[in-house]
Amino acid sequence: MIDVKNLRFSYKKGRETLHGLTFAVDDGEIFGFLGPNGSGKSTTQKILTGILGGYCGEALLFGQKPDAHPMDFRSQIGVLFEFPYLYTNLSALDNLNYFASFYPAGRRRNAAELLEMLEFKKDFLRKPVSSYSKGMRQRVSMARALIHNPRLLFLDEPTSGLDPSGAVLFRKIIEEERRKGTTVFLTTHNMLDADLLCDRVAFIADGEINALDTPQKLKEQKNSNMAEVTYLYENKRCTVSVELSRLSRVFPFPHDKIISIHTKEPTLEDIFIQYTGKGLIS
């Protein structure tokens, strides 16, 4: 789906931003592209979506360069930008119907049904975007990215501005798109999103990829082989770190090495949703 080899780019002569990136994304994969501000994430995404040219190396999507056949290429990708790009004087429905008009009728999804799936407030369907919260704009932007059933989704900070229940909803929608065969290229600072969603992740810093693997394998590579145990003793709460090799002696099953131990308590996000139902609608 995506094949990048020795990708280099400079905004200014002599000041290279990307230093020879090489990676591939398979069909139907959710691929995380993670890094701090200024690492080259946005530059890479702009090249892959055909916004930036003038790069060196190779960047192929669907076997072709992003700028080779722009109209055909753009009809196959959907993009959710970190900062919602919507016409603020138009309503959610007007925005979506306008953007949908760029694509063949057979590719378009129903705008109202998309917004309902994204749990958008019905009272605001025909109100101008200027009156929306950040979370509401994010829902419209996601609908815009999905309106034409793209084969490849570029999602930049998709859960930004959403409450916990909204973030859970977005992750479910992203997983559903993948089940339909859509490939997802996800850029985010949110490690929870990356851990829960991504088949593989790449860590980029200073224009170079420092690591690329599944989230589980990356975590195992940096395992400290220590377990933190919290317990009560004489009505006091105590915490102690214990080597896994010491704990492994008590397990009643054959094993070579204990890789990790963790409990099954709910996350703070789980607790928030349990107490508040769907949470605060953004």
From TrEMBL:
Residues 2-231 form the ABC transporter domain. The keyword Nucleotide-binding applies. CDD domains: ABC_DR_subfamily_A. It comes from the Bacteria. InterPro entries: AAA+_ATPase, ABC_transporter-like_ATP-bd, ABC_transporter-like_CS, ABC_transporter_ATP-binding, P-loop_NTPase. It holds the Pfam family ABC_tran. GO terms for molecular function: ATP binding. This is ABC transporter ATP-binding protein. It comes from Blautia parvula. The lineage of its organism: Bacteria, Bacillati, Bacillota, Clostridia, Lachnospirales.
